[in-house]
Amino acid sequence: MKIEIKKIILLMLSIVLVLSFTGCSGKAVTKQTDSKSTNEKKVIIAGTSVLFEAPLRAAQKDFENLSGYKLEIKVFDDAVVTDMALAEGSIDVNFYQHEPYLNAFNKSKGTNLVRYGKKVLASDYGLYSDKIKSLDELKDGFKMSIPNDASNRGIALKFLQKTGFIKLKEGVAFPTLIDIIENKRNIKFVEMDRLSLVNSLCDVDVSAMPSIYMFQAGKDPKTAIISGYNSDELGIIIVLREDKKDVEWAKYLEKALTNENSRKFIEEKYKGAVVPLF
Fold it and tell me: Nearest-CA neighbor of 77 among 95, 51, 102, 101?
């Protein structure tokens, strides 16, 4: 009799243990499912620079209404860091660069970042000075500041060739100073970070830069001594990782950045220093 009671007790304990483990297992499965659904990405992180933060923020509400996603905007002060953040996945998209810069970055870093959609906007390009008002005032051997990164330096040198200051070797995608084959004015070039060009105006005779740099510094972008680099090389683009180039939300970001609301914002804010390309 005692043996049968012991068997019954052991059987009941076994049933309780089985039910307990089953309950824990069921709870874990439910928790995992809930976690998966709550972790579904609903926030898109976009990187930009201080130069192009404004048009991105102006398009933010339209993007969110069109896509159902939230847009978080991170402003970087270093172009390389902005692209590395995208390549490494800490941001989902960036909007601040032109295609020559993107191509030069991919080549130098071995990354696979790609342009998405239309070119959105572009600056004019010109020579600016705090010391002279016309080209006639420039004496041979004058000092000029230009950007020091591959793509923007190349654009500056191509601009100077177009305006007759220098001649470059043919067929060089990203020309440097050693690619200058003629410099009749004996220009003394000073290379520096592109965002330092405006500040350099007190130390050099002229500086070659996009008009948006002057605008951002609170100076008149229409005071260029010479301007008019009509090349869509300067068009600012949406950039994604190559493996994410088909994400659905990207088309809504393009729409938001290239609709009539964005056109009106660009025209009113920049007053010709930056123009829409759509």
Answer: 51
The pLDDT score that the predictor gives to residue 228 is: 86
Helix axes 53-67, 249-257, angle to 10 degrees: 130
Strands (E), the chain: 43-49, 70-76, 93-98, 113-123, 125-128, 143-147, 167-168, 180-182, 188-192, 206-210, 226-227, 236-241, 274-276
Domain-embedded: residue 272? yes
Last residue of a domain, one of 190, 208, 228: 228
Question: Which region among 29-43, 54-68, 193-207, 238-252 has the lowest average model confidence (pLDDT)?
Answer: 29-43
What's the pLDDT at 230?
A: 66
Regarding whether 187 and 260 lie in a shared domain, the answer is no
Structure tokens at 267: 């025209």
- For the chain, what is the domain count? 2
In a domain, 150, yes or no: yes
Both 144 and 203 in one domain: the answer is yes
Domain identity same for 224 and 129: yes
Give the pLDDT mean for 88-101: 97
Q: What is the pLDDT of residues 206-239, one digit of tens each?
A: 999 999 999 999 999 999 999 987 667 899 999 9
143 vs 53: CA distance, rounded Å: 32
Burial class from Cβ neighbours inside 10 Å (0-12, 13-18, 19+) for residue 19 reads exposed
Q: What does the pLDDT average to over 139-154?
A: 97
Burial of 185 (0-12, 13-18, 19+ CB in 10 A): middle
Domain that holds residue 105: 43-123+234-276
* CA pair distance 123, 228, nearest whole angstrom: 10
